[in-house]
Amino acid sequence: MAFSHPLARGAKVCTANLRDGRKEKILLIITTAQLNPDHKKYKEENIRRLSEAAVDYLEQTNEADGFMLANRLKDWETE
């Protein structure tokens, strides 16, 4: 069962190599929703709904140890 949500543009379980040598599986969720709370288009409700859906998915599937929200690379602001 793959993670799916209206605010998610894609999701994949990746392995994170931690500094202490351990490995953890992380559900990486790509979204177009604004993730910066200081941005005028940030909507806390959208991030809360997406995060709750991720937690529910992880509880049901045990596919990963946690999740991370990220924007598409082309949506990143550069200075």
Q: Distance between the terminal alpha carbons, to the nearest Å? A: 39 Å
The portion of residues assigned to helices is 10-25%
Low-confidence segments, ≥5 residues, pLDDT <50? none
Secondary structure category: alpha+beta
Q: How many β-strand stretches?
A: 3
Mean pLDDT: 92
Cα shape: globular
- Total helical elements: 1
Q: H/E series, N to C?
A: EEHE
Query: Radius of gyration in whole Å, from Cα?
Result: 13 Å
The main β sheet shows up as:
3 strands, mixed
Strand order within the widest beta sheet: 1-2-3
Report the β-strand fraction as a percent range.
25-35%
Give keywords.
3 strands; single chain; 1 helix; 79 residues
Brief digest:
With 79 residues, this protein is α+β, with helices and mostly antiparallel strands.
How would you characterize this protein structure?
This protein is of the alpha+beta class and 79 residues long. The chain has one domain (8-75). It is 23% helix and 32% strand. It contains one helix and three strands, in the order E-E-H-E. It has one helix spanning 44-61, and strands spanning 8-17, 23-31, 66-71. Strands 1-2-3 form a three-stranded mixed β-sheet, covered by helices on one side. The longest helix has 18 residues, at 44-61. The protein is globular, with a radius of gyration of 13 Å. The termini are far apart. The mean pLDDT is 92.
Q: Topology of this protein?
A:
Blueprint: E1 8-17, E2 23-31, H1 44-61, E3 66-71
